[in-house]
Amino acid sequence: MINEKLEAAFNDQINKEFFSEYLYLAMKTYFMEQNLLGFVNWFDVQVQEEHAHAMGMFDYLNERGGKIELGAIEKPVVEGNCPLTIFEHVLRHEEFVTSRINALMDVAEEVKDRAAMQFLNWYLKEQVEEESTVGGVLATLRLIGDDKKALLMLDKDLAARTFVAPVIG
To answer: What's the topology of domain 4-70+81-158?
Structure first.
């Protein structure tokens, strides 16, 4: 049976992961309106990844005998009005998620739940990858500036991204 404090922390993080899915779905709509289908694809993959992350924690909490309590998902607000500012928001959000995973790890360490710490190591590694990926797109967008042709080339590159279901834990 999982510690009650850790159970609550997992439930909170599950909510945050579902919020991330919802936020990226909202961001996708901006790119749909701009007809940037490669960016739409990039966010489709993000939506699927965030759902998988939430469900990984959901399944883990259930496996450990914890009680799953789903809370309301806050309405997402997309900050930005161009690809660059939206990706700056994405990076800030991923940094926030990293801080929350670290806080969840802190609780696991506090209650000395080594199984949870081992499980969460995958998420910590994933967050390093997430921040790096977003940082790469952001660096390219900064380099592009107002060059519409370069933006379309990036859009074409982002269309090639595919979802690979993660093996969590």
So the answer is: Ferritin (1.20.1260)
